[in-house]
Amino acid sequence: MRRTPSCPGGPTAAERARSILTAAHSMTVITDGHHAEVRRLDGAGVMGHVHLHAPFEGPGAPRDGRVPVRLELTDIAPTAVRDRLRARVTVTGLLAGPYDPHSADSTCMEFGQCVLEDGSGRVYVTLQELEAAEPDPVATCEAGMLTHLVDEHPELVPLLLRLVRPHPGRGVRRALPVGIDRYGLTLRLERSRSHDDVRLPFHKPVRDIDHVGAQIHALLTAARRLSHSGRLLT
Question: Is residue 91 part of a domain?
Answer without folding.
Answer: yes
